[in-house]
């Protein structure tokens, strides 16, 4: 059984790497590269903190619970993804594959899971829980953040998928607590 598992893991890694290389080829187009660099930069936190500030300005006291919910869930997400990165130590794809061009400066050394995607999912799900009308803008933006990671050579698709799943899990658990 270990040989079969190793074979599946090798196949998965091959597919994951191939998908990453394919996504990254899109970054050869300067318009696509610059668009996704801007999306990624907004996903660093600028967009989310601005959204929370805007919620407070518009809804004042009514926005306090949603903003605190976003902050707490985001903090828990940070703890989990930093812990996972320190345990898995998965190198970023541009460090492993010469065919992958790095198109943005990484925030840290390792790739698993995608913290940008994890936080985008958390913030989106929490925000639309309280403000459903925001889903029209936040869901596409979150998808673009996830796509930006392999396009810019920073993450494998599996890093993005796992980041999204962890973000969903944290959000769902937070809804049952708050």
From TrEMBL:
Transmembrane helix as UniProt keyword: yes
Protein name: Phosphatase PAP2 family protein
Top-level division of the source organism's lineage: Bacteria
Native source organism of the sequence: Candidatus Methylopumilus universalis
Keyword Thylakoid tagged: no
Membrane topology: Multi-pass membrane protein
Residues covered by the Phosphatidic acid phosphatase type 2/haloperoxidase domain: 66-175
Localization annotation: Cell membrane
CDD domains according to UniProt: PAP2_like
InterPro entries given in the database record: PAP2/HPO, PAP2/HPO_sf
Transmembrane segments: 64-84, 120-148, 160-177
Keyword terms of this UniProt record: Cell membrane, Hydrolase, Membrane, Transmembrane, Transmembrane helix
């Amino acid at each position: 059984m270990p040989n079969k598992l190793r074979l599946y893991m090798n196949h998965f890694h091959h597919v994951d790497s191939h998908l990453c290389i394919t996504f990254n080829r899109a970054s050869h187009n300067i318009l696509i590269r610059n668009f996704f660099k801007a999306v990624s930069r907004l996903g660093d936190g600028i967009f989310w903190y601005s959204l929370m500030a805007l919620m407070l300005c518009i809804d004042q006291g009514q926005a306090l619970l949603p903003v605190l919910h976003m902050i707490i869930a985001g903090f828990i997400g940070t703890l989990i993804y930093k812990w996972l990165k320190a345990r898995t130590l998965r190198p970023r794809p541009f460090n492993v594959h010469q065919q992958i061009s790095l198109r943005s400066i990484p925030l840290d050394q390792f790739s698993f899971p995608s913290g940008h995607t994890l936080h985008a999912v958390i913030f989106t799900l929490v925000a639309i829980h309280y403000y459903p009308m925001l889903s029209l803008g936040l869901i596409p933006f979150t998808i673009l953040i996830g796509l930006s990671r392999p396009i810019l050579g920073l993450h494998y698709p599996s890093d993005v998928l796992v980041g999204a799943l962890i973000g969903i899990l944290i959000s769902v658990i937070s809804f049952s607590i708050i």
